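Work Package 3 (structural annotation) set out to generate three-dimensional models for the target panel prioritized at the project kickoff. During this period the team completed the workflow that converts sequence records into discrete structure tokens, so that structures can be stored uniformly alongside our sequence database. As a representative example, we reproduce one entry of 180 residues exactly as it appears in the project archive.
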Amino acid sequence: MPTKPEFSRLVRLEEIAASGGLTEELRASAEECARLAARFGLLKLEHLQAEVTLRMAAGAAVLVTGRLEAQVTQACVVTLEPVASKVVSQFAVRYISSGLAEGLPEDELDLDFTEEDVEPLAGDTIDIGEMVAQYLALALDPYPRKTGAEYAAGREDGAAEVESKEPNPFAILKNLKERG
């Protein structure tokens, strides 16, 4: 059973076509921020806002460009203390309808995978809220670290040695080798 996205803003394709293009400003409510924070494992998502532009493009496609800003708090990977940061990200996505693009020659599709992501267009709507949420997830620091936080000293490779009550099997082998 599919679940409803935490931050959903649907735009109908006919609105985009009729207007020649749309620019939407999105702001997540406090409840949406809390649900997104839980989804992405954040300690807190204070605010999320985005400006998204949608326009019809050649080759039965919709070009979506935008910029998002968010204030997030993540757990430090070393100390687990809160680390606050501002996330800013720009994105570009080309949605292509497979049904509409079937009869077009390949050169009319003109896809540039280095400049934009390409997604299939299913149905007659695009959920720009969910798209913004996904780009927020991609822009998060995967290893947030509090300033000055250091890993425990131990070995040369930076990993801390763990004391064990169990005898080390390699130490036992070393003792056997020394005996004889």
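The longest strand covers residues 61-75.
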